[in-house]
Specification:
single chain, 332 residues, alpha+beta, Beta-lactamase, 15% strand, globular, beta-lactamase activity, EC 3.5.2.6, Beta-lactam_cat, beta-lactamase
Length: 332
C-alpha cells in the first residue's frame, strides 16, 4: 500500500504541476524510481516501459536493457503470422497437421491432451492456444508457418523495431535451458527426465549462463514499440489487430502478474513469459474511463519465490494504472 500511496501522490502532483502539458516524459521519472525501489525487494532485475495510447509520454525503467523474453516473444510470432494472413499467404481457417513428434514439453495443453496421431488445427486455433495457454507445440508449429525465427525477426525490422530478436523455436530454448541433447520434444524430455530426475526441480531456478545468451532477447522499449504498432494498425490490418487483441484478452496464464492488483474486472489483454529466474508480462490495460495503456514488464535473475516475481509485475501494473487514472482525475 505504501508504494501505491506514493504513486497516487506523484500522479496528482504531476497533474497539478505540468497541466495542461501532462504527458511530458519527465513526469514519469519519479514513478519509475519509486517502483524500482519497491521491486528490488521482489525480483533480481526488473525493466518496464509503458505508454498511454494516444500520448507521447513513455514511462520506463531500464527500458534499454535487454531481457530474455521467454514466451512473451509469441506476440511477435503472432504478428508475423497475421502479416502473412493480411498478404493472403495464409488464412486463419487453414488447417495444419500436428504429428506426435511435434509435441513439446513446457506449457503443453496439446501434448497433455492429444496422445494419438490424427490431430489437425486451424491457424486461428493454434494462435488461440499459443497465446491463451502459452502452448509450445502450437508456438513452434506457427513459427514454421511464419517462415522460422529469421522471418519473425525480419518482420520486426520491417516495422522499424530493433533491440528485439527472435532466434529459436521454443523447443530449442527449453532444450538448451535444461541441457537436453536436442529440442524439448516429449520424447527427448521424457528420456532425459527419466535419466536425471533432478532436472524437474530447476524449472524456476535462475540460470545466469542462459540469461547471458543474447538470443531471444528484447528491451522493454522494443516490446512496447511492437505493442503500439499492433494497436495502431501499423503491424497488421485493423481486422488482424482486433483478432490478436481479442485473443490476448482471453489469456489464462499469469493471473497474478499484470492483473494481480488491478480492480476486479479491469480489461487486460496480455501475454506472459516464464523460464528459470525470468517472469514477464506484456499487453494492454484499460482504465475505467476507457483510455488504455500498453505495458511491457520484464524481470530476470530472480532467486525469490514465484509469488514475489508475480507481485513485482503486479505492483508495476497497478502503480501505472493509478498514475494514469488518478492523474487524469486530478486534472478535471
Amino acid at each position: 500500500m505504501k508504494l501505491r500511496n506514493i504513486i497516487m501522490a506523484l500522479a496528482v502532483s504531476a497533474a497539478a504541476i505540468f497541466s495542461p502539458a501532462y504527458g511530458q516524459t519527465s513526469d514519469g521519472k519519479p514513478v519509475a524510481a519509486a517502483i524500482e525501489q519497491f521491486a528490488a525487494k521482489l525480483v533480481g532485475r526488473i525493466g518496464f516501459a509503458a505508454q498511454e495510447i494516444g500520448s507521447d509520454e513513455v514511462i520506463a525503467l531500464n527500458g534499454d536493457e535487454t531481457f530474455p523474453m521467454a514466451s512473451t516473444y509469441k506476440v511477435a510470432i503472432a504478428t508475423a503470422i497475421l502479416d502473412r494472413v493480411d498478404r493472403e499467404e495464409l488464412s486463419l481457417d487453414q488447417m495444419v497437421e500436428i504429428t506426435p513428434d511435434m509435441m513439446m514439453i513446457g506449457d503443453a495443453a496439446l501434448s497433455d491432451t492429444f496422445v494419438h496421431p490424427g490431430l489437425q488445427l486451424s491457424v486461428a486455433n493454434l494462435m488461440e492456444i499459443m497465446i491463451t495457454e502459452s502452448d509450445n507445440t502450437a508456438t513452434d508449429t506457427l513459427m514454421g508457418q511464419a517462415g522460422g525465427p529469421a522471418a519473425v525477426t525480419e518482420n520486426l525490422r520491417r516495422l522499424g523495431i530493433t533491440d528485439f530478436r527472435v532466434d529459436r523455436l521454443t523447443g530449442e530454448i527449453i532444450g538448451e535451458f535444461y541441457g537436453l541433447p536436442g529440442p524439448a520434444t516429449m520424447k527427448v524430455a521424457t528420456e532425459a527426465f527419466k535419466a536425471r530426475p533432478e532436472l524437474a526441480t530447476i524449472v524456476s531456478d535462475r540460470n545466469l549462463d542462459f540469461e547471458a545468451d543474447p538470443r531471444d532477447h528484447a528491451t522493454p522499449l522494443a516490446m512496447l514499440k511492437l505493442l503500439l504498432a499492433i494497436d495502431s494498425g501499423t503491424a497488421t490490418s485493423a481486422e488482424s489487430r482486433d483478432f490478436l487483441i481479442d485473443v490476448m484478452s482471453r489469456t489464462r496464464t499469469g493471473a497474478g502478474r499484470l492483473k494481480g492488483l488491478l480492480p476486479k474486472g479491469t480489461p487486460v489483454a496480455h501475454k506472459t513469459g516464464t523460464i528459470g529466474g525470468v517472469a514477464n508480462d506484456v499487453g494492454y490495460i484499460t482504465l475505467p474511463d476507457g483510455r488504455r495503456f500498453a505495458i511491457a514488464v520484464f524481470t530476470k535473475s530472480s532467486e525469490t519465490s514465484e509469488a514475489n516475481r508475480d507481485r513485482a509485475i503486479a505492483e508495476v501494473a497497478r502503480s501505472l494504472y493509478d498514475y494514469y487514472y488518478v492523474g487524469q482525475m486530478a486534472k478535471q
